[in-house]
Amino acid sequence: MEAQMIDMPVLALRGLTIFPNMLMNFDVEREISVKALEAAMENNQDLFLVAQKEIFTEMPKQKDLYTIGTISHIRQILRVSETNVRVMIEGKKRAKLDSLVQESPYLLGTIEQVEEEDAPQQNTLMAEALLRQCYAVFGEYHDVAPRMTTEVLTTVLSSRDPGYLADYIAQNTSLRHQDKQQILEELSPLERLKTLNTILARELEVIAIEQDLEGKVRERLAKTQKDYILREQMKVLQEELGEGDTVSEALEYQEKILALELPQDIEEKLLKEVERMAKQSYGSAEGSVLRNYLDICLELPWNEYNEDRVDVGEARKLLDRDHFGLEKVKERILEYLAVRQINPEAKGQILCLVGPPGVGKTSIAISIAHAMNRKLARLSLGGVHDEAEIRGHRKTYVGAMPGRIVNALIQCGSMNPLMVLDEVDKIGSDYRGDPSAALLEVLDNAQNISFRDHYLEIPLDLSKIMFITTANTTDTIPRPLLDRMEVIELSSYTDEEKVQIAKRYLLPKQMEATGLKRSQLKVSDAALRSVIAGYTRESGVRALERMMGAICRKTAIRLVDGTVERLSVTPKNMQDVLGPVKIHPEVRGAGKDAGIVTGLAWTSVGGELLEVEVNLMDGTGKIECTGNLGDVMKESIHIAVSCLRSRSKALHLDPDFYKNKDIHVHFPEGAVPKDGPSAGITITTAIISAMTEKTVRRDLAMTGEISLHGRVLPIGGLREKTMAALRNGVKTVIIPKGNVPDLEEIDPAVREQLHFVPAETIEDVLDEAFPTVLGKKRGNQTKTISITEKIQSESVSIHQ
Fold first, then answer.
1. Which tens digit of pLDDT belongs to each residue from 159-186?
2. Which one of the listed residues 395, 678, 689, 737 is annotated catalytic?
3. pTM assigned to the model
4. Is 694 a catalytic residue?
5. For residues 464 and 415, is the Cβ–Cβ distance under 8 A?
6. What does the pLDDT look like over 622-658, one tens digit per residue?
7. In what side-by-side order are the strands of the sheet with 466-471?
8. Which of 140, 278, 617, 696 fits a disulfide with 250 by CB distance 3.0 to 4.6 angstroms?
9. Given 361, 464, 721, 737, the catalytic residue
10. Is 279 a catalytic residue?
């Protein structure tokens, strides 16, 4: 039988499907749909209803429509508004859209009627099984589906036609329109019912999952509501008791902790403390301790880091602007910045600046922080005796607080500051612990990645911090602590360096502090040298800065009095400004009397001259040592005597001097403690001078340790000692041959003005110390040591 083709208006449905022999009400708003209804009514014609594939398509084409739809009859139409029409439609039979012949002003299509397969006999086993399955599945669906009336269930149970039953259930349930379209397109009644059963079974599973989720949500909401009610009741009770709200406070702490995104172990620890706090009553002592603990933990600058300035040139300019000299320190910092530029993840450095007071250790550390664009944290450790100053106290103690390291991080607000540990050599220890031992973990790059303060009890990463410690000497720093630091020695300033520092920094600073203009005060270089020589004696420049302040104040009072309009300070009027000269050249006995020799000593404030006086008296061989001497220096005296006894014949000395002569060795300034082996050759030379009654050259100073066999051994502090020699008018310095490589570290100005004589044995020392030795003429003048010659040759000739 040939299929019948007919043209009729087409109404595209969005999210809806109508089945044959079913009634459906819906609203129509689109203009093409309203016009399709009007055309069908005017021509007293049926309408073809077909579903759209996508409900958001406004102007559907044929490709946007399904192929199978339903030829329907308009039962009733009602215009609700100018653009909205409500219509009642009755489905008649399935049909197929062959083509759209018109898309405007409404859809008009060529429709091909579709013949359904004949309904099977109701008593077949397959039909009976599908019907029973449908009744059972729909019964379950009816029980759980929302808004399902009993009338629908009755109609379903009373129907025995598989095709009609499938269409009826699909029309009256809230299945997806894709599922309904699948049922509509199925022409076999049994297959249609089988498809429906499958879809309903799937819907039952989806509804079960939805109900389970809904139950969980409802249960959670009920718990939340219960918690809210309980909290409100607790608030009322706490208000009645005059206590705060610990629950809301705990929630606030939890939010802050979670917002920090801390490592898991730290976060768990803090949240655990919050839970403990929430269980305490508001006014309890334990609650107050936990609140203080959490407040301090939250004040730490977690994940806050400053970006380093990696421009080496700019950092060099900043360092040179703030400090004159100190090239070693500057070069080391620039090396670190260069490494950071190549490897941004490099760990922080640990430097130890060692030098006399006033040479700029602390101020250069502050300038380094500015040059690196880091926050600065400064800790003065001088006189600290308690380990808790570094690590903090356990929070169980009353008034417990974290240590200085943690406080410094909180104050500077960064986890990678530059931390200056001042006066690390003056840390003490007593029954409360040893702070220097606590610093072992802080100043160790392998351990400080998880530093634990006693108060916090959580690991802190200190590896990004750059530590700079300062000290006047390394002698009092424990060896394990010193081993963890890179030591950079800052020596005393030369007079010329002090002149430049006074001109560039100290005088302008004091003029600014007193409000003087540059036109009102002028200090010549010669005047600065006079101040340095006659009013200050120091390795650094602190006293020099005070003198610059005194000059500025004297100038200010003269300007105010109207005595002068402008003051120019020169060596001639220096005493009028600063008063009489306070420091005179030392009156040295060397060169005048036999038995007096000038030695060189190192102190924590720089180098100093150290005279040795020896007297010989008739006696029984006793040795007297005076001048507040230490054990090492006393041993040096005995070594010198033993050395001379073994050389008495070669030196033409009395072989029995140790029996019939008493030897008295004295070091002036007896109130000052003295110790160390470096005066060995000075003591030996002074004893020979006293025995032979030969004077030692006045412009000569010496330093070196003596051995029993007369070897001259290397010493330390050569740079400071040579500066002291130059400052006090010494021209020639005898040094151990083993210290010749150290001449490279000496200031070029000192090397140019001093004549260095390396000595390998005591004979070399005596040959330089006396114009004649026991009537024997010296050789030619000793060769001057230059750095170039030292580098070219390992051995330095004593005589030409």
1. 888 888 888 888 888 888 888 888 888 8
2. 678
3. 0.57
4. no
5. yes
6. 888 988 888 888 898 899 888 888 888 887 887 888 7
7. 376-380, 418-422, 466-471, 350-354, 486-489
8. 278
9. 721
10. no
